[in-house]
Write a structure and sequence with these properties.
8-stranded antiparallel sheet; mainly beta
């Protein structure tokens, strides 16, 4: 089965580098998934287990980051400042999700996914978006 979707997500992370800085990053994203599902179960009732793989594309449109300098010789030592997340983070990400779930009916499903981001969050570091996701879905 092919199951495309558009969703809005909030992702975030915390990082602390001793004697340098700490950041609390919050990002708001729009995400497009192109899901491929392998379903096992009763098609007439719309029930059963499914496995999924979904390439995705995200685009960041907002978010705030709190940053604190932890270097005692810096002028703004231990001062927290708030900046826009995408001033230094990449707005777009491309990756894929692997998941397993269960269809309760033709309208409801529950799933667990693991997201593998392939683009760097920041060009200067090798951090990528990776996350577990639990979702409850209603189909119109």
């Amino acid at each position: 089965y092919f199951q495309p979707s558009v969703s809005f997500a909030q992702k975030g992370f915390k990082i602390e580098i001793m004697n340098n800085f700490k950041r609390n990053v919050d990002a708001l994203l729009a995400e497009v998934d192109l899901g491929l599902l392998l379903k096992f179960g009763d098609e007439r009732l719309g029930r059963g287990v499914f496995l999924s793989i979904a390439p995705y594309f995200t685009y960041g449109f907002g978010g705030k980051t709190k940053e604190t300098v932890l270097n005692p010789i810096e002028e703004d030592y231990n001062v927290e400042k708030e900046i826009q997340t995408f001033e230094y983070c990449n707005r777009s990400d491309l990756g894929f999700k692997l998941g397993i779930g269960y269809d309760f009916s033709k309208h409801w499903e529950v799933a667990v996914n693991y997201t593998f981001g392939m683009n760097k969050i920041v060009n200067t570091d090798n951090y990528k978006w990776k996350a577990w996701n639990l979702q409850l879905v209603y189909f119109f």
